[in-house]
Prior knowledge:
Layout: E1 5-8, E2 19-22, H1 33-39, E3 45-48, H2 64-77, E4 83-88, H3 90-101, E5 106-112, H4 124-132, H5 141-148, H6 155-161, E6 165-166, E7 172-173, H7 177-188, E8 206-211, H8 222-228, E9 233-237, H9 244-247, H10 249-260
Helix pairs in contact: 1-10, 2-3, 4-7
Amino acid sequence: xxxxxIEAGPPVAxxxxxxxxxxxxxxxxxxLGRLQRRLAARFRVLALDxxxxxxxxxxxxxxxxxxAADVFETLASREIGPVALVGHSMGGKVAMAMALLRPxxxxxxxxxxxxxxxxxxxxxxxxxxxxxxxxxxxxTRAAADAALAAAVPQAALRAFLLQNLHPGATPSWRIDxxxxxxxxxxxxxxxxxxxxxxxxxxxxxxLFIAGEHSDYLRPEYRAPIRALFPTARLATLKAAGHWLxxxxxxxxxxxxxxxxxx
Length: 262
């Protein structure tokens, strides 16, 4: 599948590899626009909409090898590679799968606030609440926000989710909400890559960035990280929760610039 991409920066960036940005669940390439503009001063940067998100095509399958294959196909269609990967949350899992499946195609890897482990099913109530919104003609964003309030009390999170809604005379979701909801067990999980006798590893530079106020990168996750990414370094971004690029955009960009330039 060829994904929708937003490209910025110089086509040839002084020997630096192109950078690919991968967003998280319910997000889109546009969520990483500020980071992309900052990095584009030095790098060729592509921000992608993953399948069933943003302006990319929709399909039922959403396992990580399939989503990784989408990114590789998109890069091949533009004759881009090898690349540096930056992935947040679900996009971080896609990026990790890419590095493990085709390590020769990935120069370095930055993973934002996610680990290669199975997470609890805390997105299912959110997806159910979004699907429960009646898409009646004339639906306003304010009415949709009110309908989500009980299940999603955080106003900032509701605003983020409702970026995916086209309100008005014929309201609709830009994302494939049904496909995403059906795939949540796979999205929450981490796939078994390789075989029992040949577990994959990625030995090039890797940086995991945790939000100071997030619990997505717990101490007990360091062992599975090291097993797959033995060179991994862990950094903690101050004044940030799970959405590092929104909570501390300058700090997040600075950490990535330093890592990507190494």
